[in-house]
Design brief:
Shape: elongated
Number of domains: 2
Radius of gyration: 22 Å
Helix content: 25-40%
Order of helices and strands: EHEHEHEHEHEHEHHEEHEHEHEHEHHH
CATH class of the largest domain: Alpha Beta
Strand order of the largest sheet: 8-9-7-10-6-11-12-13
Number of strands: 13
Distance between the termini: 32 Å
Strand content: 15-25%
Structural class: alpha/beta
CATH architecture of the largest domain: 3-Layer(aba) Sandwich
Mean pLDDT: 86
CATH topology of the largest domain: Rossmann fold
Low-confidence stretches: 375-396
CATH superfamily of the largest domain: P-loop containing nucleotide triphosphate hydrolases
Length: about 400
Amino acid sequence: MPVVVDPDPAAVAALLTALPAGAHGIDSSERLQAWVAEHTEEYVVVLGPGFDLEDALAACEDLRVTRPTVSVVLVRDQQQAPIDAVLLTRAIKAGARDVVPHDDLGAVAAAVGRAHQLYVALRGPAGATHQGRVITVFSPKGGVGKTTMAVNLALALADRGARQVCLVDLDLAFGDVAITLQLFPSHTVEHAIGSEETLDADLLGALLTRHQDAVMVLAAPSQPDVRERVTPALVTRMLATLRETFDFIVVDTAPAFDETTLAALDETDECVVVATLDVPTLKNVRLALETLEMLGIARGHRHLLLNRADDAVGLGPDKVEAILRLSVAAQVATSIDIAASTNAGTPIVSGKPDHPSSAAIRGLAVRLAGEPVDPAGAPPVDPAPATPARRFRIRR
């Protein structure tokens, strides 16, 4: 999947319009190194006009040696640095495949197309296949902070662009993902209705809204009555299509076992169950876990996230684990900073990365991803067991 690198979000957005569905944008060479290390299937890097020329040539040189199957397309602003024989010679020596002007998006698209042809010739068509993982955030009880945790978990997994993450809001009646991120999408799940048999990456990509921290969002409909027209078959098709493009798909669900939630759970690789330390919630969560077990959903891949986890309420992790018969994967303590960050439109993982709550959520992200992007920046985590076969599916 192509990746664009430029410190200017406007330049990234412009270049992405010329690239295939699923193309990704990041803002620095540091994130580029993390991205390339994470994505062995990458075939092209587009270095935008805001990238310093010397840094761009250094990046070309590094990729030429370490990842020779990755083509580099160098995009330059000709008013600042004309594309002349001197620049072309330096770029080719450094390892760039193409040098194109920033205002010729057709040339950018053609260069990326040639890069893909070369990649397929070198590694074969199967070398470019991709299969992402679906992480569903679920709770049978409303008001436990499920959406806040889903949003922050998606940002933690993305790690400022090192991974490609899509956050899907399947609380179709009262979804809050978009407003939590202060996004105002022009398209939502509603615009995919009726495309159960025809939905593809291009069509679905047009419905996504980009967040500034490189997470793509598929927003819930703006009107609650739309949920009646979203079929389980459509949910299944959307998630299967997103798998083709994204590393992780984080799904925020409604607090109920409705048809769309069950369809998402059936496609789930990892299920994060959110609970708070109060008896009514724990009772509902225990019933929900029993239901998941009965349906054979995410066996061995369920992760308990305790939100607002304070010992002062009289229930500690040990008691919770005994009640639910599930070990605690992460604990997020009560903090006014979380609410303040959410109200400011900057979730705590982004706004206060050093906060204890951010560290707890990043730890869960590492557990789910299997490996940290930067091994020195996170504690080692035991890898998860192999994904079990799905045993439950809603038919249309």
